[in-house]
Design brief:
Radius of gyration: 37 Å
Distance between the termini: 49 Å
Number of strands: 27
Number of domains: 3
Strand content: 25-35%
Length: 479
């Protein structure tokens, strides 16, 4: 049976851990850099020497007493076990569950949580040895309230054990009855509780539930009590960027994705051919009533409040595979558009506008001045610059030039309207060759910058903003 890498399979391993740690504390362990206990060290320096031989075991007091010859017997005896009431109903997550699920595993895959009660006592023919031994024991448990160590599991491998050890106050009559049950004369003793100790559960044969890879919650806006005419709720987009980890076989890096609302769309990267970015950037309009006769057209409102029609950006709906199949790109609640790759100061059907903050709305095909025209509410929409590297996305790291400068490739850079940051450190724009802590917008597709002194070593993200619209995470430098 496979075991989960948690807890202990054998309770005696906890007793042994207490025993070995007490022995190291008592007489010292030069290999671990542990000096002898101060009391033991002082006894060793007395003349005549008053140290004595001792033996620490997990035997019950009666058994330990029978082994006495001329040595002091210290017994750490596990006499009671009970389930920890504070842990029995707690959810087990992370390393406790092979599935990584946040739900509680079913029995027997849920580890058993226990409190262990130990009777600690000493026996010797010399009362000083007994009391000196108990003095060392009390000091040991007082100075080590949290016990740590490694416990071996069958089949190989170690598990780190960690639990608290606290003194339990017991009434004298309770202790007296305990000693009577051992059929041994009452001796000095103290009870310690070790908690919480987990018993190793079996490993789950199969995950209780797979880890979620992608969660999307959508409420169909067409069922909301909006106006009879079209109304927009927002824009969204799936952002993609390459991993900084080593590329997979075939020199292809993993592509990460996240959802962005409202959309800040970038002109797509045409290099390399076949990459997920080698196509117009797709974004989505969400709302209601978007497929009506007076709302099937899309319009972009420029910063100067002028309007241009961008209906040509809509993704063409392919013929249905089967009669009656629902549409994919143009529905009552969603309109899918592709931002063109090329930029232009005055956008049109085949060009995207330069990076800036805009607005989008839908409406009829009548002229804006016509009394019968209809325009929906306008929602925010931004065009961001595209940022890349010569080998992006195969290598998202920028390489330093011999003079210590770096070159950023991209699209949509504007002199006077561009910001460049390394993580949160902003660089100063210049119109000449940059020095340390400066950057230069050489053209609409090239930025040259030099990092300032004093930056921390390691990976630093290169962030580019144009007209206060920031590009997607794309490139990094390594100092």
């Amino acid at each position: 049976m496979a075991l989960n890498p948690l807890g202990v399979l054998d309770l005696s391993s906890i007793t042994d851990l207490l025993k070995y740690n007490l022995e190291d504390y008592w007489k010292g362990n030069a290999g671990k850099g542990i000096p002898p206990n101060p009391l033991w060290e002082s006894l060793d320096k007395l003349v005549p020497k008053e140290t004595f031989t001792f033996n620490v075991s997990g035997d019950m007091p009666l058994e330990a007493r029978d082994k006495t010859d001329e040595s002091c017997q210290v017994s750490i005896y596990l006499f009671h076990v009970e389930q920890d009431k504070y842990q029995r109903n707690s959810p087990v997550t992370g390393p406790y569950s092979t599935s990584g699920s946040s739900r509680v595993p079913v029995i027997p895959y849920q580890p058993l949580s226990l409190d262990l009660y130990y009777l600690v006592t000493a026996f010797s023919k010399n009362y000083r040895e007994e009391q000196r031994a108990m003095s060392i024991v009390l000091r040991f448990f007082h100075e080590n309230p949290i016990m740590r160590g490694s416990v071996a599991l069958p089949g190989g491998g170690n598990v780190k054990a960690e639990f608290c050890v606290t003194m339990e106050a017991e009434a004298q009559d309770t202790m007296s009855r305990l000693w009577q049950s051992f059929t041994a004369p009452f001796r000095m003793g103290v009870v310690y509780k070790a908690s919480v100790v987990f018993i190793t559960p079996p490993k789950e044969d199969k995950p209780i539930a797979p880890n979620p890879q992608f969660i999307e919650l959508t409420a169909n806006p067409s069922v909301l009590p909006f106006t009879q005419d079209a109304r927009l709720l927002g824009t969204s987009r799936t952002v993609t960027y390459p991993s900084l980890d080593n590329p997979a076989p075939g020199n292809v890096r993993q592509i990460f994705r996240y959802q962005q609302n409202p959309a800040s769309v970038v002109p797509a990267d045409p290099l390399p051919v076949g990459s997920p970015l080698a196509r117009p950037s797709r974004f989505y309009l969400q709302g209601s009533g978007l497929n009506k006769a007076n709302s099937h057209r899309a319009y972009l409102i420029l910063p100067d409040t002028s309007e241009i029609e961008i209906t040509q950006w809509k993704v063409n709906e392919p013929p249905p595979a089967k009669p009656g199949d629902p549409p994919h790109f143009q529905t009552e609640s969603q309109m899918v558009l592709d931002l063109p790759i090329t930029l232009k100061a005055k956008p049109d059907a085949t060009h995207a506008p330069f990076p800036n903050v805009y607005r989008i709305r839908v409406g009829s095909d009548l002229a804006k001045s016509d009394p019968s025209t209809y325009r929906s509410n306008a929602i925010p929409f931004s065009v961001a610059p595209w940022v890349g590297a010569p080998a992006y996305p195969k290598s998202p790291l920028l390489s330093a030039n011999p003079d210590g400068s770096y070159k950023v490739h991209g699209r949509g850079f504007m002199a006077g309207g561009t910001e460049l940051l390394l993580e949160t450190v902003a660089l100063n724009p210049v119109v000449v060759v940059p020095a340390k802590g400066q950057f230069f917008v050489k053209s609409s597709d090239t930025i040259i910058f030099v990092p300032p002194d004093g930056l921390p070593k390691g990976l630093l993200a290169v962030r580019v903003r144009v007209n206060h619209v920031e590009a997607d995470p794309s490139v990094w430098i390594k100092l």
